Amino acid sequence: xxxxxxxxxxxxxxxxxxxxxxxYPVLKKNILYNKNKICGKKFIQLYLVFANLFGMxxxxxxLTTGIITVLLNPYYGFFQFSANHWLTTKQIxxxxxxxxxxxxxxxxxxxxxxxxxxxxxxxxPVSEDVYTNxxxxxxxxxxxxxxxxxxxxxxxxxxLF
Length: 161
Known about the structure:
This protein is mainly α. It has one domain (about 1-160). It has helices at about 1-35, 40-70, 85-115, 130-155.
């Protein structure tokens, strides 16, 4: 019963990550279309809040529920290359996601936040440094979204292997 409930939470957290695949391109388009406009600044702030909220909740939820599931299920294990290749691939991709997050996404987000501090809503134009860091963040979020989609597809199709 507990594993079933845990599985439901795991799927919910995966859904939170999958939502970003749809939302990120829309926010990116609006940020770039409204470059140096007040509403563009609002989209930048929304992008950062959305990325933090859904990224942290979804990522931590997936990681936690995945680890607990592996620990409680005797058929699974961590990085078992001889069995459950789909799960080992998912675990490796999760490590890659965590490295990208720590090395690229968090530093870029912090840099953007420092450049868009208090007074960001006023009529001053947004510095090119913000857009340079945003372009980096867009690129890394796209890479992460592709990895998340691959992980999701491995999770829902593993019974076919």
